[in-house]
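Exercise: predict the fold of this chain.
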Amino acid sequence: MTLYDAACKVRENAYAPYSGFKVGAALRTATGAVFTGCNVENVAYPEGTCAEAGAIAAMCAAGAREIAEMLVVADSPSPVPPCGGCRQKIAEFAGPEMRITLANLGGARLEMTVAELLPGAFGAGHMDKT
């Protein structure tokens, strides 16, 4: 199954009763394992949690720590980028040159690197006091 197919499939499981805007994400680790996530809204936090964060949480729960590639899909006029918080989470588990594909259900795609998605990302090196 392609990352696009996996993201589209999990997108159908999104819980979006407030916005009606379903998002799916799929990532592949360096070992080839695929993890997926979808957005989940609730009345107290109608923006909900993001699909990308869900896929990363599933990856971490399985003990993996490195994203080799990722795809995000939504039913939108153009490909939808991850929110700021998810961009930082992606940067935590992927190198700056890792490619992420943003897609919509109509076939439009935009591919970019993590560095392009989040220039100047905060990293562990910023905490080095030496």
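Check your answer against the key: The chain has a mean pLDDT of 92.
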